[in-house]
């Protein structure tokens, strides 16, 4: 951490502050110049509160040098983490595709889609039972009966199931029934929920918030890991920008950036990023080429009658065409597609 | 709602769609031009799913004409709503100031600050017992004992208390002990929490999310109102932009915009918007001049040692100076300061 | 400037870099810790290229401590700068209002509006002769004949004229005929134009770019000042964010921020920020309350038939009502309205 | 275009407006509902001014249905446009790479880099002679002598040269000496410059502005095309968002979006988007996979001593490695690499 002192601070005041830092076990280096003193702090600075130091009366500015995260930090864990669910593997050179409808609507629907995406090469089945909707008047998901249908589809196809948790009171149920627990973009900083899923034994798929930085995203993973669950998959799904043509702006740079900052696997959701089915394929291809470890794709057997997100869902036929291209591109990027 | 048909759609296909809309009780007007047909739908279109219609095979684009909210809509409720808590009143020409520390830290701290802000003219006391923090390693608030201290400060000063709920499992406790229940910016679209506070009898202070539009914000209020609680105060606290000098960018336009769209009262949090104590006063003045119904200000008796947000907290002395200016400006804007 | 060395850099490599900085006349302080060395550079670091230093093979990161601007920097020029044009004064406690139509359309129009805004208290007349339009098919302004009409309106009313320059080839004409030369938001980083207006003797009104930071904005002022023209007025006119209800998002924090960073006067354009005439008044009030030194307001005698920006223009009557409120608020903020 | 009338507008007022539109040669359809009338306008609406119509006293809102651009519109020109420069071809299935240093620094430098990038497979040479820099104290480019060196490098290697124009007064010189004229991101809405390059016979490489929408970007291309020059290449180079880890956020969705909206070729500049050399490769791969028609890459023989943008420049060796991957991926996406 670097501390810039206000111009004209007296030597004795600087000495007091330096002693304070040294008493906390930190090494402190001092740079004196005309009208400006800079302190360099080295040691375990993660627990130092940058805001508190910046409130010291003689401090002009504080700048962090080290990352504020430990468990998710690649510096302390250089090899890629791999998340394994049934036969599926995400990370460390393995690439898996998660596919399925936005929301579970009926037994026929979820089972038919599950069979279809399995035969096209998906390794996991997605489907929402509890849906976060902007309007209280929109379909809110089937709830628990939807979970039961997902379990039925799992039994029929063998595909592990991925579904979103929205309420900490549901943790026990999800721990029992679900294979991968999704935390949605709007809940990325719902810290009570993060602490709860941190106590679970199931892998957590953590979506990036609409306008959260890479560092905030990793800090939310750190919440889950600090609570005991190190099986975290990060999922880029587009950020909010001024551009309104697309539903969100897919930030492909997040893939190499997160890979450098963290050892956690990164997958991409091109369906939510685009918001339009015809843009899913180019964004999926871009994500693979940028180095992601998996995809999560919305597939619906009858998009015009989907209860939500029909406009961004692929038909099983279009998904099958996409998977042929995924199969060709993944090995070219040095990864193995698990199906 | 306006539906643009794809160029070249056959007349019979248009007729099928038109019949479908009319069967739902809507009036449909048809504009035929060279290579382009436009349908205008009039009636109760709030429950129509814009995404679903846009998936119809012959539809090019759908545009909403009416707002997707009812209970919060000024069109159906032209007079200002007023939220009353003890002697405090917010909205409809009444202006109240909420003040207090970011987090409750000790009995001495919260009681001293409460006395100070009361004597300067605050009508409500804020203080966090449960704190949403970006890092799992930061102080997370005192929890329930913090709530007890807030109640003690209320008893001593008579000021109603405002504090943040982060977990739906806390609803019963908050219903019993708290006067105004705050939903923080990061939870603005935590829909399970919204539904829960919608069942409470206490007023809800709903902060705008970091990157949520006016419409999304009102839709979150609509969640609370649809669940039965119409006592909602909206709070603008700055949005996320590319500018990094300020912690957030205060969006003063939100005040006249929300006033036009909704009858709900709007207050402003200049402390979180600025992120720097010296900027609180000009932003507070700007907010009043733009027409807000109240302020929520962070005040700490010892900012350099505050457990959080010290850098944006006013000392009681600075808060007192600010209140003198507030007292002068509020009546000039045609409002009455309640103290 | 602070230079963080890569972990494990050899002592001799650090010594070479330190010597290099000392040879450039800088004081260098060294902080050695376990696995991390930090260099603090003090002296004239404005001309150091942060990107170049960060390319040194053993450097991990470089952070700037001092601002990269000199002439616009309040540190080196603590008193407010005041720009004087005829009787109008902007800055240093003086507040002036600039008003007029988006574009000059005819002799009758510009002269009528000029008389109106003068009698309501405007100190300068604005009007566009050359208009930056998103579409090549929109009205591009009257051009040079428009300038002549502005001069005529000046002669009739005595109001100095403010108009936008878009082309460096026009500098001579503007130097001769115009009182305040406006550089528009889209040209804030048109560096060839900045250099050209930097050679002029007339005050420059520099609008903030749609998505430019405070520092970039001041750097553009620095371009003009470095070329010899220190009469620069900064104008906040709203930034681009995700919110689409307003044309732009007025950033009122820019006012106190710029006042702290620079000695230059800051005015606000609520018309372009709002994009809707009914929002001009609350934003204008907010800007004054936040401490700005002036306003620039679009006024048109017949907004529905304005050739551009009619929807955000006030009628002379509405402008007169606004000015009454401006007259009341400006002295309350400790400033003097010049009319 | 769709016009929503204010609730309660009288029938005769609606009739007057309808007649007005019909007099302009438009077909008007009317939808009457309880409390709401919608007009649908069909015909040549490109020249209608949406702002002006929205100012009509009884109009509540106006929504555009048709795109405001003609010459760049894929609807009126379904086949891909191809830009040909010497042997290089961009668009319509042909893919070319432009490479070279940020700025021309010396004869040795530009000629060495030109030879290197040519032998690795670049089809055009880039290099800045006039540089837009945020600070007036930074290196501003060599100017005209830099252009001479570029011409020398062209003569030695046969590579056509791409360089940026910043000043309309330079148009004649660029027309004579340069092969592809670049308009930089900061000048995307410098309309005087657009009009000037629209008169040139050379292809124009038009970079997207930092915070400009797809539609604004295409409108700037339309300026150039409307002035007579239809040889326009669009270049995505990252947009400004809240994320600060990367210099800009590469918007890969721009590629399929622009391809749908326009027939113009789209290339990508991963160097400016990333701002860090190690991120250039994954972003370049992502851009190709998303369907772009070419790349523009910064290459420098000695990045640590580059006069600008060294931190984002590849060495010739790294560029050669990148080109091997480009050569493998381009045909997989169904395009032909021209070298």
UniProtKB/TrEMBL annotation, chains A, B, C, D:
Organism domain of life: Bacteria
Residues covered by the DAHP synthase ferredoxin-like domain: 1-67
One annotated GO molecular function: 3-deoxy-7-phosphoheptulonate synthase activity
One Pfam family of this chain: DAHP_snth_FXD
EC class (word): transferase
Transferase found in the keyword field: yes
Stored InterPro entries: Aldolase_TIM, Class-I_DAHP_synthase, DAHP1/KDSA, DAHP_snth_FXD, DAHP_syn_2
Domain DAHP synthetase I/KDSA: 87-326
Keywords, sorted A to Z: Transferase
Any one GO BP annotation for this protein: aromatic amino acid family biosynthetic process
EC number: 2.5.1.54
Regions annotated as coiled coil: none
PANTHER family documented for this protein: PHOSPHO-2-DEHYDRO-3-DEOXYHEPTONATE ALDOLASE (PTHR43018)
Name of this protein: 2-keto-3-deoxy-D-arabino-heptulosonate-7-phosphate synthase I beta
């Amino acid at each position: 951490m670097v501390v810039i002192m206000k111009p004209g601070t007296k030597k004795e005041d600087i000495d007091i502050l330096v002693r304070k830092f040294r008493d906390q076990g930190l090494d402190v280096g001092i740079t004196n110049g005309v009208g400006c003193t800079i302190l360099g702090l080295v040691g375990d600075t993660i627990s130092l509160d940058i805001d508190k130091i910046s409130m010291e009366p003689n401090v002009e500015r504080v700048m962090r040098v080290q990352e504020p995260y430990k468990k998710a930090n690649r510096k302390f864990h250089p090899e890629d983490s791999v998340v394994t669910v049934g036969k599926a593997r995400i990370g460390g050179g393995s690439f898996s595709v998660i596919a399925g409808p936005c929301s579970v609507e009926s037994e026929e629907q979820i089972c038919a889609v599950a069979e279809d995406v399995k035969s096209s090469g998906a390794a996991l089945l997605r489907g929402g039972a509890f849906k976060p909707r902007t309007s209280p008047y929109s379909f809110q998901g089937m709830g628990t009966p939807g979970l039961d249908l997902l379990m039925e589809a799992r039994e029929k196809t063998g595909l592990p199931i991925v579904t979103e948790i929205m309420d900490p009171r549901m943790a026990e149920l999800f721990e029992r029934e679900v294979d991968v627990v999704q935390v949605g973009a709007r809940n990325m900083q719902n810290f009570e929920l993060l602490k709860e899923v941190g106590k679970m034994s199931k892998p957590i798929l953590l979506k990036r918030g609409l306008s959260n930085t890479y560092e905030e995203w990793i800090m939310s993973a750190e919440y889950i890991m600090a609570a005991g669950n190190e099986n975290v998959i990060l999922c880029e799904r587009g950020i909010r920008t001024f551009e309104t043509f697309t539903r969100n702006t897919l930030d492909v740079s997040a893939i190499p950036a997160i890979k450098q900052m963290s050892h956690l696997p990164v997958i991409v959701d091109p369906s939510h990023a685009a918001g339009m089915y015809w843009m899913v394929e180019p964004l999926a291809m871009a994500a693979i080429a940028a180095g992601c470890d998996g995809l999560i794709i919305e597939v619906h057997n009858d998009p015009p009658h989907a209860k939500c997100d029909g406009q961004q869902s692929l038909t099983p036929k279009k998904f099958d065409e996409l998977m042929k291209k995924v199969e060709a591109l993944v090995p070219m990027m040095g990864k193995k597609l698990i199906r």
